Structure formats: C-alpha cells, structure tokens
Amino acid sequence: MKKLWINGEWTDGAQHTTVRSPSDRADVVGEYATAGAEQVETAIAAAHQASLSWRHSGVQQRADALDLIGTEIQARKTELGTLLAREEGKTLPEAIGEVGRAAAIFKFFAQEALRIRGDKLASVRPGIEVDVSREPVGVVGIIAPWNFPIAIPAWKVAPALAFGNTVLLKPAELVPASSWALAEIISRAGLPPGVFNLVAGPGRVVGEAMVNDRRVDAISFTGSVATGSRVLAACAARRAKVQLEMGGKNPLVVLADSDLEVAVNAAVQGSFYSTGQRCTASSRIIVEEAIYGRFVAAVTEKLGQLKVGHALHAGVDIGPVVDQSQLDQDLRYIQIAKDEGAKLAFGGERLQRDTDGYFLNPALFVDCDPAMQHTREEIFGPVASVIPAKNYEHALQLANDTEFGLTAGICTTSLKYATHFRRHARAGMVMVNVPTAGVDYHVPFGGTKGSSYGAREQGSAAVEFFTTMKTSYIAS
Ligand code: UN1
Fold first, then answer.
1. Core-most of 174, 248, 354, 471, by most CB within 10 Å?
2. Of 189, 254, 246, which Cα lies nearest the Cα of 421?
3. Of the residues 98, 245, 288, 378, which is catalytic?
4. Residue 245: active-site member
5. Where are the beta strands (DSSP E) in 296-391?
C-alpha cells in the first residue's frame, strides 16, 4: 500500500484505491491510500504552519531542491514512463516523453527561483523610495487531471515551490501512481516537513476541503469545465486566488495551399495521439474545399496504418481510452454524430486485443455541419470532425465559432494567412504548421474564453499566479 505524504511523514489514508491498467484490467498497478477528512485537515494545517517559515527560505535552497528532483526524474524516466503508461494508457514513448518534460520543468523552475525580480522607483514625494517586490502567495492547493499524470503536477508543483509556497497536491483519482512516485522523490529532496504534501483522494473529500478552507490561499486547477466552475464559485466566495485550465474544442484549419504531408501529420497527431485525451487536441479540422477530398483521403489512409493497442507494446501508436466512463462518453458522442448525420469516414468502433483494455479505433467524421452537437462539445477522446470551409475567411470564422479558446492551428504556406490567423484566432495559443497539441515547457500556457480563467501557467508567466506583490515606501 502506497501511503500519503503529509507533514514530512508517510501517513495512512482513510481508504485506498486499486489502480488497474486501462490496457489490461488484469494488470494491477498498485494500491494507493486515499485521504479522508482527517488526513486533509492534517495536511492543510501542516502546509499552513510550514508556510510561515518556508516563505522566507533562501532561493538557493529552493533551486537546489528543485534541481535534485528534476535530475532524479530524468535519470528514472524509463521506469517512471512505464509506470505512467501502465496507469494512464498513453504509449510508452509518449509516457517517457512526458516524464522527460516533468524533469525539464523542475530544472527550469530551479533556475526561475533565482530570477524573482522586483522594481525600484523614486516616489513622487521627495526623500522616499518605492520598492515593488514579489512574495509567496502562501499555501497552494493543486488539483490535477488524469491525462498528464506527471507533467501537470510538475508544472504546478515546481513553480509553487520555486516561489516560496507550500503545496497540497491532489492527483486525479484515476492516476495516483505517478504523483506518488513524484512525491517519493520530493520527500527525499530536503524540504522541511509540511512544505509539500500528497493528499490523494476523491474530489468531494479532498478537493472540496481544499477549495473551501481559508488556510489555502490559492487553487490551481486543471480539469473539466463543470468541476472548474464549481472550484471557481467556491474560491470566489472566499476570495481565494484561483487559476483554471479547462476544456478545448480546438480548430485546425487546413488551407488549400498547405503542404499536404504537414497538414495530415498535424491532424493525425493533434487529434488522435495520446488517444485524443488532451485539452489541446484538434477536434475540429476545418478544411478549405479545394483540398478537401485529397486531405480526407490522405488522413483516412494514414489512420488505417496506425496501430491501436496495449500502451507498453512496441509499435503501438495509440493506447487505450483511460477508463470505462470515458469510453462510454466517446461512444455516446460517436452515436450522436451518426444520429446528427455526420459521415463516419474511419473507425469509431471498439477493438478487441489480447488483453482486456478500453481500445477504441480513432473516429474521423467528415462533411460535418458546425451546428452539430459533436462539433461543439468537448469529447476528450480519439474523435475528430472535419468541417468544410469555402475559403480562408470562412475557415477563420468557423475556427472562432466556439465557446472555447485554448489552441488554434493553421496549416498553410502563405505568410499572409498565417499572420492574419495569428492575429485573429481567439485562442491563447496559435500553432502554424504544427499540431495544436504538444507544447513547450518554458513558455506561457493557457487559453481565452471558456478554456481558462486566471493567470497563465508555465514559463515566465508562472510567477504571476504563484506570487503576490508588495509595494514598500521607504523614507530615509
Ligand atoms: C500538451 O498538449 O502538450 O490537459 C499539453 C491538457 C493540457 C495540457 C496539454 N492542460 O491536455
């Protein structure tokens, strides 16, 4: 049984959960403790107490700890990637890549700890100086999703610690294993007790307690729109700082002048890799009429070459769906699309493999109308809808016709259209000739409209959320 890490001690939970691999239900990844009200209370009290001194800790101490964590993650990336692939179902190369990303994030924020800047200005009043500095927010509650079991915890935990906050990490219920492994590494990095706490468990126990407790100064959340909205309401009620990363219905525009191979790769990778379970996935592929037939034929051919199967098997391109309820959701939307009259050009059916897993053939719907429900709501699976566009202007209008605004992609060889799209796409991230999913770790991440709320994550933007400003006036 893997325990919780609270106040510098491995602690029993109130209950436990058995993690099974979505590639093979017979493969038990492990037993993980889950917190009840008592453990959450202990963790919040510990994080609060630790915050009183950790906020004054030296930046070299923080940088050293984060660097050590990053180095160990990197050294163990195959082992940790295997664990991640087993618990979440992304393929082994994708999982190892994600672990490498987590390592890089810790090393990046080790350096960022040294770059916390302030400002010094003359006061408008003679003989007075003004000093603007950044201070830790205090206790940060982190609520992570299941689709990036180590990278997302990393990109919230690392900046929180780098900027002097204490942390309560609640991993998604489906994927406690990677967070446990991360916590075990962090437990040996020399942080004082209570600075980092792993409080795995159900949202209604752990999440609820964190978002409603006055001792938790800030909440960083990635997950669904429905849960994000509840988190926001709870934080707003007690005026806690909050950042939310939620859904996407990201468009990939393919213009007639695009390089067909580049466009097909962007579409297939962006829509279906990681089993389409990314908030950055391209789920609406908007294609100019002049290239429509050739593009659909090429994507369909490419999908026929992909291997769907066990996440750990060599040569597999697409792993299983994460669990039964996500599979049910994917199949429900596939049925909705059929009922709405969208044409299924490829896949969409459950696949049987040697092991008992949630395998789904990627689904490509074509000739979709932008009013259809499946083209408007986030599915979070390997399902993409191709929508025809008359020309660039029409494609841009379709791209922006969504309540979401995370990423928006365009494939074109035209500088004019690429530039226009960059300026007019209503999204937080724009991709030109690259997939909408798959982002760098050292630059800001986040969206507009219904996709995100609050300060951006990652890169140079992370300091905004994880610090607060103090303006001092000094008369000498
Ligand atoms: C990526 O596309 O590399 O939950 C990252 C998600 C996003 C992360 C996507 N928050 O899918």
1. 248
2. 254
3. 245
4. yes
5. 343-346, 363-366, 383-389
- Ligand 1 centroid–CA 434 distance in Å is 15
Residues 37 and 185 occupy one common structural domain = yes
Instruction: Find the residues whose C-beta lies inside 6 A of ligand 1.
Output: 145, 147-148, 222, 245, 278-280, 437-439
Cα separation, 297 vs 101, in Å, equals: 34
Entry field: residues in the chain: 476
**For ligand 1, mutation pick of 439, 442, 443, 457 (most atoms within 8 Å of CB):** 439
* 467 bridge partner residues: 136
Q: Where residue 302 sits, what CATH number does that domain have?
A: 3.40.309.10
User: Which residue, among 214, 278, 225, has the nearest Cα to 250 in the 3D structure?
Assistant: 278
Whether 286 and 191 map to the same domain: the answer is no
Of 90, 150, 152, the one to substitute when testing ligand 1's pocket (max ligand atoms within 8 A of C-beta) is: 152
279 is catalytic: yes
| 3 state SS of 123 | coil
Q: Which of the four pLDDT bands, split at 50, 70 and 90, describes residue 297?
A: very high
Q: Tell me the CA–centroid distance for residue 171 and ligand 1, in Å.
A: 15
Residue 20 pLDDT level (bands cut at 50, 70, 90): very high
Cα 381 to averaged position of ligand 1 atoms, centre (Å): 13
Task: Tell me the two tokens of residue 290.
Answer: 């002049």
pTM of the model: 0.97
Q: 424-457 pLDDT, tens per residue?
A: 999 999 999 999 999 999 999 999 999 999 999 9
Tell me: do 89 and 235 sit in the same domain: yes
- Running DSSP on this structure, what letter comes out for residue 242? E
Nearest Cα residue to atom 1 of ligand 1: 438
Domain shared by 90 and 73, yes or no: yes
Q: Confirm if 330 and 321 have CB atoms less than 8 A apart.
A: yes
440 within some domain? no
